[in-house]
Amino acid sequence: MVTSVRWSPEAEARSLQVIAYLRSEWSDREAERFIQRADATVRMLMRFPGLSR
Q: What tens digit of pLDDT does each residue of 3-39 get?
């Protein structure tokens, strides 16, 4: 099992842009849902790294 994930600078910047957009155009709730779903996806990829291939 993978123990950590390293985001590229571009991926991290884009993720922060999406969160900022959601907070400005939608709501904090939607931003939190995005964060939770992204976190769940990362955890799934850590558990099953072959899914990304």
A: 888 999 999 999 999 999 999 999 999 999 999 999 9
Q: How many residues comprise the chain?
A: 53
16, two tokens: 């922060």
Structure tokens at 32: 């939190």
Between CA 20 and CA 12 the distance in angstroms is: 12
What is the dihedral angle through the alpha carbons of 26, 29, 34, 37, rounded to the nearest 10 degrees? Answer: -150
Asked whether the beta carbons of 46 and 6 are under 8 A apart, the reply is no
Residue 35: which residues within 8 A CB-CB, separation 6 or more?
19
Q: Round to whole Å and give the CA distance between 43 and 48.
A: 9
